[in-house]
Amino acid sequence: MASDYLDYVTELLSPLGSVRAKSMFGGIGVYIDSLFCALIVDDCLYFKGDDDNEADYLAAGCEPFTYIAKGVTQRLRYYRVPDEALDNPQAIASWARLGMAAALRKANKSANKRSSPTSRKPTTRKAG
Fold it and tell me: Which candidate, 105, 65, 6, places its Cα nearest to that of 20?
């Protein structure tokens, strides 16, 4: 998993928190402070998108991450950052914060689902 590109990305993102990488999806999953917010595939960096930030990525011309499974192109809501952002610590931090925010929203949504009461039939007791 070690590569010069991964080392470079890790260095760029380190001011934002603790960065760790994990092999996944045929690439590398990138976590910042335990938030899974980015992918590296073929030496390209993609940050997590969602309904709240997808328009920002699309407005900047960021391409979504796609792959082919069983002959069908699949699309994940991860967006490739503009190449020039990789040369600008402030720009990469802005893109990373978008991805971290999306990851945090997803984590909060998942936590809320786990903590909400499940629907159960009310139990009734028979007098007797």
Answer: 6
**Type of residue at 114:** R
Q: Where are the domains of the chain?
A: 4-107
What's the pTM?
A: 0.83
CB of 98 within 8 A of CB of 53? yes
Alpha-carbon distance of 100 to 125, in angstroms, equals 49
* 64: exposed, middle or buried (Cβ count in 10 Å: 0-12, 13-18, 19+): middle
The arrangement of secondary structure in 4-107, i.e. its CATH architecture, is 2-Layer Sandwich (3.30)
76 HSE (CA, 13 A, CB side): 17
CA neighbor of 40 nearest in space, from 28, 24, 26, 22? 28
pLDDT confidence of 114, banded at 50, 70, 90? confident
Structure confidence by residue, pLDDT tens digits, 64-87: 999 999 999 999 999 999 989 999
